[in-house]
Amino acid sequence: MFSLVKSSCNFTQREWLYVCAQCGHQLFSSRSKYEHSSPWPAFTETVLQDSVSKHEERLGAFKVRCGKCGNGLGHEFVGDGPKKGLSRF
Ligand SMILES: [Zn+2]
């Protein structure tokens, strides 16, 4: 879950990184964070191509896990981002 994710600061790029609470794998950056009505932080994209692994749960919704250790992180909702064509994590 996102509530378990801790953040660390990358001073050179002035952005916050959200990493896996279990293994420290880089997941999301503050650059792709945006405000959403849900209580969880919302992101449009992951930091790395292999940041997360996805499992289609139903049409347009993927279960998202850490790409390294498999820690459950939540869901990706395709097309539910702040702009058309963007995803919400
Ligand atoms: Zn992990």
Automatic annotation (TrEMBL):
Q: What is any one GO biological process for this UniProt entry?
A: innate immune response
UniProt entry tagged with the keyword Cytoplasm:
yes
Q: Give the UniProt subcellular location, in the record's own words.
A: Cytoplasm, Cytoskeleton; Nucleus
Residue ranges annotated for the MsrB domain, each copy included:
1-89
Please give the GO cellular component terms listed in this UniProt entry: cytoskeleton; nucleus
Name the UniProt key words of this record, in alphabetical order: Cytoplasm, Cytoskeleton, Immunity, Innate immunity, Metal-binding, Nucleus, Oxidoreductase, Selenocysteine, Zinc
Q: Which reactions fall under this protein's catalytic activity?
A: [thioredoxin]-disulfide + L-methionine + H2O = L-methionine (R)-S-oxide + [thioredoxin]-dithiol; L-methionyl-[protein] + [thioredoxin]-disulfide + H2O = L-methionyl-(R)-S-oxide-[protein] + [thioredoxin]-dithiol
Q: Which PANTHER family match?
A: METHIONINE-R-SULFOXIDE REDUCTASE B1 (PTHR46755)
Q: Which gene encodes it?
A: MSRB1
Q: Which organism is it from?
A: Salmo trutta (Brown trout)
List the Gene Ontology MF annotations in alphabetical order: L-methionine-(R)-S-oxide reductase activity; metal ion binding; peptide-methionine (R)-S-oxide reductase activity
Needed co-factor(s): Zn(2+)
Q: What's this protein's family per the entry?
A: Belongs to the MsrB Met sulfoxide reductase family.
Q: What is its main location?
A: cytoplasm
Query: What is this protein for, i.e. what is its function?
Result: Methionine-sulfoxide reductase that specifically reduces methionine (R)-sulfoxide back to methionine. While in many cases, methionine oxidation is the result of random oxidation following oxidative stress, methionine oxidation is also a post-translational modification that takes place on specific residue. Acts as a regulator of actin assembly by reducing methionine (R)-sulfoxide mediated by MICALs (MICAL1, MICAL2 or MICAL3) on actin, thereby promoting filament repolymerization. Plays a role in innate immunity by reducing oxidized actin, leading to actin repolymerization in macrophages.
This protein is called what? Methionine sulfoxide reductase B1
Keyword Glycosyltransferase in the entry? The reply is: no
